[in-house]
């Protein structure tokens, strides 16, 4: 079990992005993290991964401190060194049991060409291959479906489900709520830097209805002052 306890993160200026956040993530499950832009989703993922240091709080797995060695991280935007090939990029990850060409039968990437010439979707697929090769027990996937075509998106959906069956713990964000409802065991709703709700699958539909109605009412109030 992953326990996030009293987590607070502030950027320069002292305004907290995450404030006294508490969250429990069951291991071997797929967890969706949702929230509007600016609510702290990416900041929270960066703290979990260790890229940002919080002002206070702890993140534990089975009672010990969570570390980067536990986590495979797919950020929204991926960075690649210039002038290297896709194959050279994958060689940065140590896993002698990973067959890059076998996996590439699914993704159809030109692994021996330099990444500089890859499209956005190709770069996303290569980054996914890197996360898969790293083979960590916890996977953090920030908007993993962005930039993927429909077929590759469904393939990734299947891969995530298979990883769950192998007892990986997966945290995934998406701007498309329906994709998370179809994929996740739990959904956690982040608002103003705290987790407002954590929901099991049987409550997803009612949450979706409540959230969309709230958004529609806010939009209507704003439009009424303009039109």
Lay out the secondary structure:
Elements: E1 2-10, E2 16-25, E3 30-34, H1 41-49, E4 56-61, E5 64-65, E6 71-74, H2 86-90, H3 100-107, H4 120-134, E7 138-142, H5 150-165, E8 169-173, H6 177-183, E9 186-191, E10 194-200, H7 204-224
Parallel strand pairs: 3-8, 3-9, 6-7, 7-8
Antiparallel strand pairs: 1-2, 1-4, 4-5, 9-10
List keywords for this structure.
single chain, 227 residues, alpha/beta, 4-stranded antiparallel β-sheet, 7 helices, 36% helix, globular
Describe this structure in words.
This protein is α/β, with parallel strands linked by helices and 227 residues long. It is built from seven helices and ten strands. The strands form two sheets. A six-stranded mixed sheet has the order 6-7-8-3-9-10, sandwiched between helices. A hairpin with a 2-residue loop joins strand 4 (56-61) and strand 5. Helix 3 runs antiparallel to helix 4. It is globular and about 55 Å long. The termini are far apart.
Short description:
This protein has 227 residues and is α/β, with parallel strands linked by helices. The chain has helices at 41-49, 86-90, 100-107, 120-134, 150-165, 177-183, 204-224, and strands at residues 2-10, 16-25, 30-34, 56-61, 64-65, 71-74, 138-142, 169-173, 186-191, 194-200. A hairpin with a 2-residue loop joins β9 (186-191) and β10 (194-200).
Helix content: 25-40%
Strand order of the largest sheet: 6-7-8-3-9-10
The coarse overall form would be globular
Strand content: 25-35%
The number of helical elements comes to 7
Number of strands: 10
Label the structural class.
alpha/beta
Mean of pLDDT: 92
Largest sheet: 6 strands, mixed
Distance between the termini: 50 Å
């Amino acid at each position: 079990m992953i326990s996030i306890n009293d987590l607070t993160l502030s950027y320069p200026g002292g305004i907290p992005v995450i404030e006294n956040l508490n969250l429990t993530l069951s291991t071997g499950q797929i967890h969706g993290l949702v929230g509007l832009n600016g609510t702290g989703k990416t900041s929270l993922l960066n703290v979990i991964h260790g890229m940002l240091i919080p002002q206070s709080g702890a993140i534990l797995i089975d009672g010990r401190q969570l570390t980067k060695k536990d986590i495979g991280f797919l950020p929204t935007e991926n960075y690649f060194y210039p002038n290297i090939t896709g194959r050279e990029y994958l060689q940065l990850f140590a896993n002698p049991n990973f067959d890059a060409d076998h996996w590439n039968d699914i993704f159809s990437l030109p692994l021996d060409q330099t990444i500089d010439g890859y499209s956005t979707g190709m770069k996303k697929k290569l980054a996914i291959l890197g996360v898969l090769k790293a083979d960590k027990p916890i996977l953090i996937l920030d908007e993993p479906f962005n930039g993927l075509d429909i077929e590759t998106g469904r393939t990734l959906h299947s891969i995530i489900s298979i990883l769950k069956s192998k007892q990986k713990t997966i945290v995934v964000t998406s701007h498309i709520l329906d994709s998370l409802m179809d994929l996740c065991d739990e959904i956690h709703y982040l608002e103003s830097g705290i987790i407002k709700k954590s929901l099991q699958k049987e409550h997803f539909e009612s949450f979706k209805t409540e959230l969309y109605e709230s958004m529609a009412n806010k939009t209507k109030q704003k439009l009424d002052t303009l039109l």
